[in-house]
Amino acid sequence: MDLYQELILEHSKRPHRAGLREPFDAEVHHVNPTCGDEVTVRVDLDGDVVKDLSYDALGCSISVASASVLSEQVTGHSVREALEAYTAMRSMLTSKGEDPGDEAVLGDGVAFAGVARYPARVKCALLGWTAFTDALARTGVDITLPEPVAEKG
Amino acid sequence: MSIPSAVPFSEEELTRIRADFPILDRTVRDGKPLVYLDSGATSQKPFVVLDAEREFYERHNSAVHRGAHQLSEEGTELYEDARATIASFVGAQPAEVVFTKNATEGLNLAAYAFSNGAHGGGGGTGSRFALGSGDEVLVTEMEHHANLIPWQELTRRTGATLRWVPVTEDGRLDLTDLESLLTERTKVFAFTHTSNVLGTVNPVRELADRAHAAGAVAVLDACQSVPHLPVNVSDLRVDLMAWSGHKMLGPLGIGVLWGRPEILDEMPVFLTGGSMIETVTMEGSTYAPVPQKFEAGVPMAAQAIGLGVAAQYLGELGMDRVAAHEEVLCAHLLKELAQRPWVHVIGPEAGPDRGGTVAFVVDGVHAHDVGQVLDADGVAVRVGHHCAWPLHRRFGVAATTRATVAAYSTLGEIDAMLASLDRVPELFGVDT
């Protein structure tokens, strides 16, 4: 099946950086009401850098693996880079397969490109990421992204 | 409930039945034959139902119960004939059948009647509909959200208290403490006939009698029983019974609330507006007799007519034979699942008080992932909490995979699901 890439199964069996850690600036709890998947996300900011993202994910392989990739892609990065990763992930997942994802921005997240063809699972893959942006907003930082700069002439 | 020992469908009969359902011929996911085991969510529709809806729109489309022209007369007659067919399907009289959008609306209609009664509104006359603080509403832990949340909201609006009957480890109602739960304070006892998760068929008549002995109104959710078992309202002895049309081979957008005549007469109205009135002045209004007083607005005539045809179709198959057929399928599925130690069924063991709904957990694999593998093989099941979140919490699981059968389901489909299921552990690296 194109949905369950080896990378996704690996992340779901051995989620990276899993567990809730102290200290943190904001914590949120999000659920997927259609299936009962749950995720708790904590963010610890150091200035405009995501010093730590810790999480507790209970759910399907897609939602757990996605939270694992999220923690890898945003920890140690600036808030702006983290938001760009979120935007890229969301764009890929909601593209119905048009957007294959940019590995430079998403890392292992590109393994989720196949999820875009399964509308019922997009929410699973976005659960942790949406919770992350919510947690960021609760820390009080600005989560709006500047307009994308034209590039690649 | 005991089912007479009817003969299950023969293979030839089943082939003929399946030929009536056009969708069962289609393929999914790159040419795989559709294996539809999600009839508990919604059933498929036979040609006769689709034709009846189309014919209404092509020949008789009109606002029923309004206008004196020929189309309206024909439409009204077909609509009322459908009511009579559906009433007779459950052993009731036509005037006891109220058409609703779905079972959820039927249960909300009942719940709102109690709070409208509490405020002296809705044209009701019965004191039993005046709920207030000190009163109680009793439900069960195995209810679908549709037979739970309307009562939660009712008790919140009126200051009454919500209580519930717990569920045992083997998936039955725990009636040990029923005496202390069902008392003279209980105004409503709302429960399901067949659990949409566990498949448990509850002892409806006993529960209805207990409710009446306490002076409570007995409300039954019959969504998972009417399409699968012979159901007769006089045997069940409940006061109100709601079910949906689309789970019994009928169209979407139509449901039924049946009620005992004296209950419906006394019951305050819910939705108000056109069609449900007797007289209207600027100061106030009086309401039409039952069932019209509960059917505000231009009704969904095509759907009602389609549902009448669905009831007739099921009646011709014979509900005792449908039940016998589904019992064979369910017993086979339960036996096969029991041989897989990595699968855990929640719900009672096979038997006549067990409907064709089988929910299970695969060790170490989330239901969403199980469902995705089955879907890749063309097998449609439901995954999640099936709108019964408290019940899933009771069993300590976030979600289950649920297979449900209907009159047209086959042993071959069950085997196809099992073959697909057997791929799951390896794919997710789980030991069997």
Structure description:
The complex is a heterodimer of chains A (153) and B (432). Chain A contains five helices and three strands. By secondary structure, chain A is of the alpha+beta class. Chain A has a single domain, classed as Alpha-Beta Complex (Sufe protein. Chain: A). In chain A, strands 1-2-3 form a three-stranded antiparallel sheet, covered by helices on one side. In chain A, strand 1 and strand 2 form a beta hairpin. The longest helix of chain A is centred in the last third of the chain and has 21 residues. The radius of gyration of chain B is 22 Å and the shape is globular. A seven-stranded mixed sheet of chain B has the order 4-10-9-8-7-5-6, sandwiched between helices. Chain B has a four-stranded antiparallel sheet with strand order 13-14-17-16, with helices on one face. At the A-B interface, loops of A face helix 12 of B.
Q: Which stretches of chain B are poorly predicted, pLDDT < 50 over at least 5 residues?
A: none
How far is it from the N-terminal to the C-terminal residue of chain A, by CA? Answer: 37 Å
Radius of gyration of chain A: 15 Å
CATH class of chain A: Alpha Beta
Architecture of chain A, according to CATH? Alpha-Beta Complex
Write the layout of secondary structure elements.
The complex is a heterodimer of chains A (153) and B (432).
Chain A: H1 6-13, E1 26-32, E2 37-46, E3 49-58, H2 61-74, H3 79-93, H4 103-106, H5 119-139
Antiparallel strand pairs in A: 1-2, 2-3
Helix pairs in contact in A: 1-2, 2-5, 3-5
Chain B: H1 11-19, E1 27-28, E2 32-33, E3 35-36, H2 47-60, H3 70-89, E4 97-100, H4 103-118, E5 136-140, H5 149-158, E6 161-165, H6 178-181, E7 186-192, H7 204-213, E8 217-221, H8 233-236, E9 240-244, E10 255-259, H9 261-266, E11 277-280, E12 285-287, H10 301-317, H11 319-338, E13 343-346, E14 357-362, H12 367-376, E15 379-380, E16 382-384, H13 389-394, E17 400-404, H14 411-421, H15 424-427
Parallel strand pairs in B: 3-15, 5-6, 5-7, 7-8, 8-9
Antiparallel strand pairs in B: 1-2, 4-10, 9-10, 11-12, 13-14, 14-17, 16-17
Helix pairs in contact in B: 2-10, 3-10, 4-5, 11-14
